[in-house]
Design brief:
388 residues; alpha+beta; Beta-lactamase; 9-stranded antiparallel beta sheet; two-stranded antiparallel sheet; 11 helices; 17% strand
Length: 388
């Protein structure tokens, strides 16, 4: 994955040799007709390997499920996607719900709430709010992935070298969001899957899960890295995802709440609506309006050298790009194993752009995926204005 300007240039130069959907796409379309030629140009330019798109404007919608033959990526209305860091929006909402119910306050220190962690030196001074907005100082280090692979507890990660910096500037951290999952199981004595189903998925009518071991693999869109592309290395369910999380294990279940949700576009639309509408969905108040407003308030920023346009709330990207829209966009991106997912809703208008895929160009502009930028510009500036 390109992470610097130089590597990004090299990546974009090499992209033409990667797999492309050109000439081999088939589509299932539902709802409002859209400019398919314009949409297909974006898919081809960014080498997207199978996808689902959902555009919503009020009660009107357009959905497109795109399959390709080589490498085989099939999409239809039954397909589920591993949505990577889009999971963080769902995790934040569950945390807010537990806070609303009195399980903790957002500014409580997290160490006393985790098993055997009250005196853990690395966690001292870190609050739940800081984990939600990536200002805890925690960093993703190799020990994080190693502990997940070995089935070790989060203590093994906390005691590794370099896991916490001395700065509270924004530092995007999957491990920090993983600890929020441990927190949920610790304070509820329930499994992550049970908590998410009860607090979020079922109330919002979402078809979603964190427990991939329960899924039929044939329903899952495989994810392929287009550069470098390696035949036969598609990801549907990771080795971690094949382990059941039906029972709580609050020292070891830190590998799910940062990016392991499986769902679809329609379900993400419901999630975006409840955020945009201050906790209300279909006329019912599911979340505290005050807490949802905190979620949508800027708490951190990636900084002027990385992406001055990208601000962060609580588990929520606040995208302000006048070249895309004069309004703020709320949502999140998801990058993992080659997918470049995006789910955003426009402030004030409620227009939604949700795009899930089985791989594509990971080239970025700052932190914004170029494919997501292209889709947002096309949808908000050209496609939606053409709807009658």
């Amino acid at each position: 994955m390109p992470t610097t300007n130089f590597r990004n240039l090299l990546y974009r130069a090499a992209l033409p040799i990667s797999p492309t959907p050109r000439g081999q796409m088939s589509h299932i379309t539902l709802g409002h007709p859209i400019d398919m030629k314009g949409y297909q140009r974006i898919l081809c330019k960014h080498h997207v390997l199978g996808s689902s798109l959902l555009l919503c404007q009020g009660d009107d919608f357009a959905a497109v499920h795109t399959s390709i033959k080589h490498p085989a990526h099939h999409a239809d209305s039954n397909t589920l996607f591993r949505v990577a860091s889009i999971t963080k929006m769902a995790t934040a909402l569950v945390i807010l719900k537990l806070a609303e119910e009195g399980a903790f306050a957002l500014d409580d220190p997290i160490a006393p709430l985790l098993p055997d962690a009250a005196d853990e030196p690395t966690l001292q001074g870190i609050t739940i709010r800081q984990l939600l907005c990536h200002t805890s100082g925690l960093r993703d280090v190799p020990a994080y992935e190693q502990a997940l692979h070995n089935g070790d507890s989060f203590h093994a990660v906390l005691r590794s070298e370099g896991v916490r910096s001395h700065s509270n500037a924004m530092s995007y951290c999957n491990f920090g969001f993983g600890l929020l999952g441990c927190l949920m199981e610790s304070v509820t004595s329930q499994s992550l899957e049970t908590v998410f189903q009860q607090k979020l998925f079922q109330p919002l009518g979402m078809e979603a899960t964190l427990d991939a071991s329960t899924l039929e693999e044939r329903r899952i869109m495989p994810i392929s890295r287009v550069l470098p592309y390696r035949k036969g290395q598609d990801v549907t369910i990771t080795s971690l995802g094949r382990r059941s999380i039906a029972q709580p294990d609050p020292t070891r279940h830190f590998g799910h709440t940062a990016g392991a949700m499986y769902t679809n576009c329609a379900s993400l639309s419901n999630l975006l609506l409840v955020i945009a509408n201050d906790g209300t969905y279909k006329g019912k108040q599911y979340f505290s309006p005050a807490l949802i407003r905190q979620m949508k308030t800027q708490h951190s920023c990636t900084g002027p050298t990385a992406a001055p346009d990208r601000r962060y709330g609580l588990g929520l990207v606040i995208l302000y790009r006048p070249d895309i829209s004069p309004r703020k966009l709320y949502g999140h991106q998801g990058f993992a194993y080659g997918c470049v997912d995006g789910a955003f809703i426009e402030e004030g208008t409620g227009r939604q752009v949700i795009f899930l895929n089985g791989g594509g160009s990971e080239a970025r502009e700052g932190r914004l995926g170029l494919s997501n930028k292209a889709l947002l510009q096309w949808a908000l500036q050209k496609e939606f204005p053409a709807w009658k």
